[in-house]
Amino acid sequence: MKLRILGIVIAFLSVTSCMKKQVEGVQVVDVVEFESKMKEQNVQLIDVRTPEEFQEGHLENAQNMNVMGADFEAQVANLDKTKPVLVYCKSGGRSAKASEQLKALGFTNITDLEGGFTNWSGSGKPVVE
Q1: What's the chain's average pLDDT?
Q2: Domains recognised in the chain with CATH numbers
Q3: Packing angle of the helix pair 93-104, 2-17 (nearest 10 deg)
Q4: 70 by DSSP, 3-state: which?
Q5: What is the pLDDT of residues 26-44, one digit of tens each?
Q6: Cα 109 from chain centroid (whole Å)
């Protein structure tokens, strides 16, 4: 019985950690608009999933900066706050968290991919494997 309850709790936490949280000042866009923004100049594209998820497939030219990693803030410190930042994760939850942190660090032009990598790959868009 305890294992069943533990399983339910873990499943609930997994689902809610991937849910999208709207962050004020962050533009959340669909796959088509995100792809269009990727073609703009000076864009910084970051994948905030784990390195293992990144290795399984990612968007071309993306930099992997694990939002759950202890060094996330140090990694994003290398980004230019004046240039656009495009963020994605698996389904949107972690990228919302990353967007919130980026905004708190002074980034002003943040775009988050609605539905994340799952939505991107499900739309038949190209990925690097």
Answers
A1: 88
A2: 20-122 (3.40.250.10)
A3: 50
A4: coil
A5: 999 999 999 999 999 999 9
A6: 15
User: What's the token pair of residue 4?
Assistant: 């069943």
Q: Is the pTM of this model over 0.85?
A: no
Which residue, chain included where needed, has tokens 């594209």?
A: 45
At 108, give phi and psi (nearest 5°): -115, -20
Q: What is the arithmetic mean of pLDDT over 67-96?
A: 96
79 three-state secondary structure: coil
Residues pairing with 29 in the sheet: 113
From 89, 96, 98, 113, active-site residue: 89
89 as an active site residue: the answer is yes
Q: Return the bridge partners of 28, or none.
A: 112
Closest-CA residue to 39 (of 111, 105, 118): 111
* Position 18, amino acid: C
